[in-house]
Every structure is written in C-alpha cells, then in structure tokens.
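Sat 14:20. Reprocessing the chain from the morning session after the first attempt stalled halfway. Input below, unchanged.
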Amino acid sequence: MWIEWSNDSEHIVLPNKYSLQLGAQIPPIIKFHFGSFETERELTLSTLITKNTIVLPISIKLNFMIPDTLPYDLRIDENGLHLGPVIAILTSRVHVSPGIRTKYLEYLWDYKNLQGLIYLCPLEGINPAKTGIEGYYYQPDGLGNTGIWKKGVFPYPNVVYRRIGVNRNDKYDHLLVTVGQKIFNPSFLDKWAVWKALQDNPKINPHLPRTAVLRNAKEVICMLKDYGSVYLKPVSGSFGRGIVKIELTNKGYLWKHKNTKKKSSQKKLIKILCYQKRRRAYLFQQSVSLKVHNKHVDFRVIMQKNNTQTWNCTGIIARYGMKGKHYTNDVSALELGVDGLKNALNLNDQQIKLKTQEILSLCTLVCENLDELHGPYADLGLDVAIDTNYKVWLLEINFRHMHNIAALVGQQSSMYSKVITRPLEFAKAFAGYSTP
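Finished this time. Tokens:
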C-alpha cells in the first residue's frame, strides 16, 4: 500500500476493492491509525485510484512525518483503518550515532517482508508534549540492496523494541503509557531479580545453582564446604566484569579475579568478603562449571519469538573460555552447540539430541515464566552449563545479548541473519500485522 496526499482535509480515499472488507454500509466517519496516532476522517471509496493506494489528507502530517516513499500494510477492523506497521527501536540515550545507524542496517535485511515505518530512536528524542519522536527511519533503495537512514520526527509507534537499559524518567514513562504493553524486553532484571523470579517454579528451580546475596561472609564459607568452589558475582553487571571464583584448597582458599590468583586464610577471606560487600552488591553462587583442557565451557542459547509470537531457539553456541580463566566471556573459541556437546561431553548423536531437547525445554520454560512475571519479552540470550554428571544448569539471562556472536561461529551466516531479523519479524506480528 502506497500513500498519495490530498489537499482535501476531510476525506480518506481507498480503492473500491475494500468495499467487501468494510461491509454493506460504508461508515461515514472512520478512525485512521498510524502507530499510536489516530484521527477521524470521512471515508470514500473510488474506482479512480490504483488498488495499492491510499489517499490521505496532507493535514494529517502537520506535526510529524509519514514517509510516502515506503510500502505499508493496511489492516481494517472494528476500530478503523490501520496503516503500518510503525516500529521503533530504542537504541541509545542521547543521540543515534553514525555507528549505531550502520550497525542496525543489518536488522533490515528482510525489509521486503516487513514494510512500514521502522525507525531508530534515542530516549532523549521522545517528546511527550507533541507525542512525537525524533530519530532515523529506514528508507530501502528499491533495488533490493541495503537502504539508508533518514532523519525525521515520527508519531509514537505501534511497538517498541528496547535495546538499552533505561533509568525511568518522564519521557520513557510517557512512551510506556502511550504504547501500553507493546514494548518488548521491557525490563532488564539484575541477577538476583532473575533468580527470585524463577525460584518458585518447581520445574525450573532444580536447574538453578544455589544462590544468595552476600550479607554474611560466613555463609560463603559454608557454601564452600558444601561445593568446594563458589562464584562471587556483582548483582548488576555484564561481560564477566567483577566475577570472582573462590576455591577451597587443602591449604586454605584460592581467590581468582581477572588475571590474578591469591591464596588466603579463612580469616583473610572473611575480611576480603566484608570489604567487597561494602563496595558493591554481590551474589555468591554454587559453582557448576565444566572444564575441558583447563578451559571453562558453557552454552549460549538464543531464544527469540518469530511471527507466530511463540518462543523458538534460533541457535545454540558453545563458548570456551581462555585457558586457566574462570569465566567464558573472554572466549578462546566458539562452535555450534551440537559440536560443543559432542566435543566437551563426548556425547553420541542420540545423547546430543536428548540433551538438546532438555536444554530447549528448560529455556522455553524460563522465557515463558519471565513473560508472565515481567514481560513481554521476545529476544533473550540464556547461558547454560552442563556439569560432569550431565545435569543442565541455568547460569544467567542476557536481556541485551550481543547478536553478532552468531556471526562468529564458523560459516553460520544463516544463523546470524535469523538472529538479527527475528525481533522485527516478531514486532510486525506483535503490532497486529501478518508476516509472510
């Protein structure tokens, strides 16, 4: 559907073919929706315009852009005419840099099946007074090649895909109220909030490492006696920053942080833990890690919703940490999950199939549980580990996972293209428009 503009301020004109959808009696006044913007106009059907054209009063776009160089879908229901989809990607806080614009071009690889207005917006671009957002919209080149971003001011969208952490403020709150529940990945929970959200589910709880907030150093000592090693993790943090592994040895304790290892007595360890607690909020957690050739290995499970609006696994990636390191964020190697299960755990094909099914069942259940409590979500990266007894453990949930990890696994360009295009595929369906 393409837009033509008219100086007639009262009428919206559609091709005559829409008479069947509108019913026997054409409503004299109809609501027109574009994103979260709506207005009422008179509706006319005409045989004089082409079948893929809608004629709109130019007065509709006084306060914002409705680009007429884009193809749109038209949906008609009991609430009126909906032209769209209009999808906003919340990408930054202050401005959308050239680097961000270049990065997000790849997310529009499948634009021909999306259509509509898709724009990048910073938090500071939201204007509650005018219910408009300043940002950059995607303009395809029409030849099937990569398009460009163009600056403009747009109405609030149908759906927001949130890619940044947000400190709540008036701008975000107004967007939240206006768009309603159509912001997906709305809450980036810290590690403790995730654990609390999931612990009451009897099917998930057995797969959660024993975890507690660091309040009393002696509690850490007790867990070390039970498990031999524990991880100390910042409640809020990412990319492995601040993670410490503490091991119980024959001669005391071993403290591992970044590139350093320190031996410690119990008295000294308690003193260090008390100091850490004063500096920052920490968790301590049962160690369930698996080592292969002195490298820790875990699995990134990429869970996303597609145009069916249901959870699916886009890919599983095995991550091997650097030799001697106690985490996997600094990877020495990546491989497909199926290869990792085979190489790290020495599983045969049937065992790999069963273990993969177990991983996916757990991750789907986790995503559905988070949806219920804090959602809607549609794009998550879950880190799982498998111990020497082949038990599956949920380590962490990444609410802003790095999509490009999928591009680094061998020749898996097909996985990467799915990973970066699925969120917008879901967004279109979430906005109420069907996707091919």
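The chain has a mean pLDDT of 91.
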